[in-house]
Each structure stands twice: as structure tokens, then as C-alpha cells.
Specification:
Number of domains: 2
CATH topology of the largest domain: Immunoglobulin-like
Shape: elongated
Largest sheet: 5 strands, mixed
Structural class: alpha+beta
Number of strands: 10
Distance between the termini: 90 Å
Strand content: 25-35%
Amino acid sequence: MSKFINSSLIEIQIVEWVWTLIPAILLLQIALPSLLLLYILDERSDSKLTVKTIGHQWYWSYQYRDLKFLEGIRLEFDSYIVPSTEILNSHFRLLDVDNRTVLPTLIQIRMLITSSDVLHSWTVPAMGVKADAVPGRLNQVKLVGHRPGLFFGQCSEICGANHRFMPIVVEMVRYDTFINWLIVAE
């Protein structure tokens, strides 16, 4: 039986090295730039606006803090879903809220996201933003809106019976419109 085994096929060390090293090198070429990019994105601290978002059952609270371009202005509000009985023609059913989150375009914004009760997830797919809201922990998301518009999202964590009724509406506006909204809202 042993006379039919080719001994040169059993102990080919070069083949073993090649199919181990080539995938390892490829993985390093993918991983190192990705890790560098993650580090660079996480370490930016030049945000002009900080918004703290707090998830509750079943609504969101927003606190505009650390406005580096306007001293002394602090704004806080709750954002509830618009009830079906109060929907206007300009509202989107099950997606619109009574107080929209208004943010300026072309400015670095830091969103601090947490929860007061259970796990939630602040998700706005059109902006590429998703962060878990965990009680006792602050998660951070950096974003820059490049164009004005309405961006809809929802809590994407199963957080209870009314989880589907936690919509998020981010209204991106020009800088001057944002300043006027801040002055009127305060």
C-alpha cells in the first residue's frame, strides 16, 4: 500500500507557506488602513455643536449643548410621534414627530446618545447613522450634513411594546436658518 503514495506530495513545505502567507498579507492590507481610518474618525474633537439624545419609552429627548458659535444658548425638548388623530396633510403617518431635530448643514456635529430606561437604537439610515442608546453609557456619533432636507429614522432596537412608535426626524437646514430656529426656540 505504501508503494502507491508519492512522498513529494506529502511534505511540500513551500505550498504550506504560500497558502498561509498570501491570505495573511491580504488581510493585513485590508485591516491596517481600516483601523487607521476608524482611529482618525473617532479622535476628531473639533465639533461645533453637541446634541445629547436620550431614549425613553417611547420617545426621544434632545439637549443642544456646547454651542461653540453661540454662547449661553441651551435648548432641550422631547420628541413624540404625531398621533394618528392629529396628522395633517404635510405629515408622514408613523414617521413624523411633534418636535424635529434641527441641525445645520456643513458643520461638524457630535451626537451623544444614551438611554434612561432600556436599550434603544438611534438610527437614521439616509444619513448613515446608527448608534445604540444604552442606559448609563454615552455613545458618540460624528456627522456632517451636506445638503438640507428631512431625514427619517426609527428606533431599531426592540425596546418594548411601542418600539415601533419611536420615530426620529432630522431636519438639516442652512446655517442662518438654524441660528434663527435656535433663537426662536429658546
